[in-house]
């Protein structure tokens, strides 16, 4: 297994020409214009190929459908999402937007699906020439004859699709006999279909066998309880342990037999691979949480039920039908503890309406931000955040923190601080992908930094407390010196995701803050941050401390734990 910190993965787009080159050869004659192909696409990530058809979302090993290897492979980018989060996301799509029966050849097809998933995983669209495939081409005889190929997608036992090629297309357009290659393709399709049926039957046999053994185990346990003898119980326990080992061996052998019968002696079943990847992901997250310093978050400052009721009253009579649905979704998520799947596609538009509509009372924004600060503590909030990768509704609002009234700044700052509760959402705050906002190039890490500095240097003690928390959480992010894929994004010599220039900017804010008289708790968080920054930026930060001051020794004697942090800073200064 890869290093627990090495959590990135490549996202690729597999591109198939459904006409197998015929569109390129004959399109000029048939429709009077040249097209290179009629495209079917799939997303490849986490070692699987995901695609959409009439029966819904399906997956296979990359290149494992009967279409074979793709005509083109385009690298979309990298994703840092945990597999467990992606799995929840894809399952949510499979029961909503891309559920079975929602497929439409022209308006809601495989390319719409890959566009959605590509933006979610890597924040990038698929190539424009695929999305812009004109509908009139698909309405030509070529397109109509391809309908049979596309719309006969169906499940097989191995979790990959089988396609039925429409012979009328080749017969009517090529005007020649079916080629031997075409016959071989059909034979391969039929063989795959028969193998899938055999595999499903064998699986059913295994499940039935395991169910019988499970009933036997339960019967033995019942008999063991009835005997009531300690010696007998011990004997039965040993017997049961032996039986369990035998059953596991038989089960594994049966699964191996199924795989061998399909020529997959070394490849796991898709369901087994999913379970293994989920377990690996859990172990990685647990290990990372054990290693990291606990973040400073605010868990008990908000009564979310009261905030929701207040928001409901403030918005009464001001929401359209879709926005009322979003309010119900918000209730499900934060009050009824449903997963983020409860939040629909329009939820962030609803959030944007509240944040940016100045006809609404400022108190409505305060209440919404308070609710979001509680939602930020949930482990699946990353799914909500990733919906914002295109429009940046939340982060654009956060970047303008200095333009908002103080009562809105406080819950906004708490929202960002609480996002450090979970690894995935804290990673999101440090993304470096840039976008344009008010003629400036900004990124998540720049927004997070600006909010932290503004809050720390404000006149509000509550804001300073939350600003100190964000800076502490940034400084204590796990080191990246063992992660090959993420380390290459950092400036040379850096060992943390907090880049050198960010460390310098935050250090300057800390030094300015030290000119006052901070409370012990905030002073400790800030001094600990300063000590970390001397490690992250081993040259610039110590020079700043010596040039600007004040000397950390000014606070010596405040508390033992602060003295320890001062000693760490001093070791870098001398």
Any overview of this molecule?
Helices cover 58% and strands 7% of the residues. The strands form two sheets. It has a five-stranded antiparallel beta sheet with strand order 4-3-2-1-5, covered by helices on one side. Strands 6-7 form a two-stranded antiparallel ribbon. By secondary structure, it is of the alpha+beta class. The chain is globular, with a radius of gyration of 29 Å. Helix 22 runs parallel beside helix 24. The two termini are 41 Å apart.
Would you spell out the secondary-structure blueprint of this structure?
Blueprint: E1 9-17, H1 22-31, E2 39-45, E3 48-53, E4 56-60, E5 72-79, H2 83-94, H3 110-122, H4 128-131, H5 135-138, H6 141-151, H7 167-174, H8 180-227, H9 230-261, H10 270-291, H11 304-314, H12 321-334, H13 347-356, H14 362-375, H15 381-386, H16 393-399, H17 406-418, H18 423-429, E6 435-437, E7 440-442, H19 444-456, H20 461-475, H21 484-487, H22 500-513, H23 520-536, H24 540-548, H25 560-573
Antiparallel strand pairs: 1-2, 1-5, 2-3, 3-4, 6-7
Helix pairs in contact: 8-9, 11-14, 14-17, 16-19, 17-19, 17-20, 19-20, 19-22, 20-23, 22-23, 22-24, 23-25
Short summary:
The protein is an alpha+beta fold and 574 residues long. 58% of the residues lie in helices and 7% in strands.
> Which range does the strand content fall in?
5-15%
Gross morphology is globular
Question: Which value, in Å, is the CA radius of gyration?
Answer: 29 Å
Counting helices, strands and paired strands, the structural category is: alpha+beta
Number of helices: 25
Secondary structure tally: strands: 7
**Separation of the first and last Cα atoms:** 41 Å
Low-confidence stretches: 1-6, 151-190, 233-249, 251-266
Q: What is the helical fraction, as a range of percent?
A: 55-70%
Q: Order the strands across the largest sheet as they lie in space.
A: 4-3-2-1-5
- Major pleated sheet: 5 strands, antiparallel
């Amino acid at each position: 297994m890869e290093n627990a910190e090495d959590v990135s993965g490549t996202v690729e787009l597999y591109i198939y020409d459904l006409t197998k080159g015929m569109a390129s050869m004959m399109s000029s004659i048939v429709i009077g214009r040249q097209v290179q192909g009629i495209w079917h696409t799939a997303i490849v990530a986490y070692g699987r190929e995901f695609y959409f058809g009439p029966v819904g979302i399906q997956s296979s090993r990359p290149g494992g459908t009967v279409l074979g290897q793709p005509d083109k492979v385009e690298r979309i980018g990298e994703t840092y999402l945990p597999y467990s989060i992606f799995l929840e996301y894809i399952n949510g799509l499979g029961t909503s937007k891309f559920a079975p029966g929602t497929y439409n050849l022209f308006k809601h097809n495989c390319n719409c699906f890959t566009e959605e998933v590509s933006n979610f995983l890597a924040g990038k669209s698929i190539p424009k020439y695929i999305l812009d495939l004109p509908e009139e081409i698909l309405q030509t005889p070529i397109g109509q004859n391809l309908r049979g190929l596309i719309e006969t997608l169906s499940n097989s036992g191995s979790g990959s699709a089988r396609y039925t090629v429409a012979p009328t297309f080749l017969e009517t357009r090529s005007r020649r006999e079916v080629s031997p290659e075409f016959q071989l393709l059909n034979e391969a399709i039929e063989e795959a279909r028969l193998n899938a049926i055999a595999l499903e039957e064998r699986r059913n046999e295994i499940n039935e066998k395991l169910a019988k053994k499970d009933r036997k185990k339960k019967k033995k346990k019942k008999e063991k309880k009835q005997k009531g003898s300690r010696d007998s119980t011990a004997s039965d326990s040993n017997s049961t342990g032996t039986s369990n080992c035998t059953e596991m061996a038989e089960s594994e052998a049966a699964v191996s037999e199924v795989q061998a019968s399909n020529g997959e002696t070394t490849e796991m079943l898709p369901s087994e691979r999913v379970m293994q990847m989920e377990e690996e992901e859990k172990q990685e997250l647990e290990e990372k949480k054990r290693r990291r310093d606990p973040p400073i978050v605010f868990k008990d400052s908000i009564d979310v039920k009261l905030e929701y009721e207040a928001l409901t009253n403030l918005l009464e009579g001001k929401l359209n039908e879709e926005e009322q649905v979003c309010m119900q979704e918000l209730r499900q998520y934060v009050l009824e503890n449903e997963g983020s799947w409860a939040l629909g596609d329009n939820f962030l538009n609803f959030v944007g309406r509240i944040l940016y509509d100045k006809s609404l009372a400022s108190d409505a924004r305060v209440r919404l931000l308070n609710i979001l600060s509680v939602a930020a503590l949930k482990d699946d909030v990353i799914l909500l955040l990733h919906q914002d990768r295109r429009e940046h509704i939340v982060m654009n609002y956060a970047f303008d923190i200095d333009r908002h009234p103080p009562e809105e700044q406080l819950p906004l700052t708490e929202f960002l601080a609480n996002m450090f509760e979970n690894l995935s959402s804290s990673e999101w705050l440090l993304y470096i992908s840039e976008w344009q906002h008010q003629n400036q190039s900004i990124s998540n890490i720049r927004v997070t930094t600006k909010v932290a500095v503004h809050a720390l240097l404000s006149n509000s003690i509550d804001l300073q407390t939350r600003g100190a928390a964000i800076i502490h959480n940034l400084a204590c992010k796990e080191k990246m010196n063992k992660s090959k894929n993420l380390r290459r994004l950092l400036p040379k010599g850096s060992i943390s995701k907090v880049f050198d220039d960010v460390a310098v900017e935050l250090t300057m804010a800390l030094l300015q803050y030290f000119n006052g008289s901070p409370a012990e708790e905030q002073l400790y968080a800030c001094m600990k941050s300063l000590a970390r920054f001397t490690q992250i930026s081993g040259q610039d930060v110590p020079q700043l401390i010596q040039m600007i001051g004040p000397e950390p020794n000014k606070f010596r004697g405040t508390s033992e734990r602060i003295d320890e942090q001062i000693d760490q800073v001093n070791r870098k200064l001398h």
